[in-house]
Design brief:
Number of domains: 1
Shape: globular
CATH topology: MetI-like fold
Number of helices: 14
Strand content: under 5%
Oligomer: single chain
Amino acid sequence: MATASARVETAAAAPVTLAKPEGQWTIVLRRFRRHRLAIVSLAFIFVVFIASLLTPLVAPFPRDAVNPVMRFSLPFSADTRDNKKLHLLGTDHIGRDTFTRLLYAARITLSVAFIVATLSTLIGMAVGALAGYYRGAIDGLLMRLLEFMSAIPTFPILLILASVLNQDPKLLPFPDFLVNLVSGIMLIDPQKESRSVLVVIFVITLFGWTGAARLMRGMVLSVRERDFIESARSLGASNLWIIARHVVPNAFPPLIVAYTLALADGLTAEVALSFLGLGITDPTPTWGNMLNFATQFMLTHPWAPLIPGIPVVLCSLAFNFIGDGLRDALDPRLKM
């Protein structure tokens, strides 16, 4: 009995260590890792992004180097000017290395997608937060603007705007610092090529913010009357402080998902405009204008459209799978 009593006393005296509770973002990361398609998609986008950043180092040929003798050469063809160099993905209709131009095109197309998604989300956040928090006349005005932007046929307007703005630079002048910034990021000529890129970014962003605004407004309406908001008001916090410190962070989870989907939308919009010849034009390489030229020769060279077309499909799917994974990871109602 004494021995049993001693064991009980020892067990009672032993300190109890409680497991440290997981943080919110730790739980999100753990749930996201279980979504295999999202993880594979994230790894794929990371590889493409790194390759586009290292384009000047890994590209085997100059971007616009032309070799008319090697028009539509097959993949892994040796260059006629330097037998030690291979055209890994062949050449295009005027003898430019397809792999090199694909890397430069990835840098430009993905940069446009990231810039458009970022600007659209930020504008939508601002409009939605103001409309949802202030209500009244401000909400009515901003919502009528949102409904108008959502009601008009977006793609035909994009085509018209892109065509008009590219033809007459005086209609939309861009400051020099923006032109030089885009030139440095995308490795393009600031005088000849930066403007068409900025026009594409402008017209896509002009119509791309409505989804984020509607989502943000709904989130603001769901939290604006909660106790912690009322407490902040009673303590004298300004409206701007309440929106930035309390309202916006509560809307982050769905906005993160919306951002990844906006990346896919921005990418496909840029590709569509360039494919139709109304966006970024040759010699600046993008996946859209590479696809445009390749389809003109697809009857005689059926593999040509696949080279720029496959990255477009894979990146669009990857962004959507990442969005699905984030949505599942951020939704506490789902059991994974």
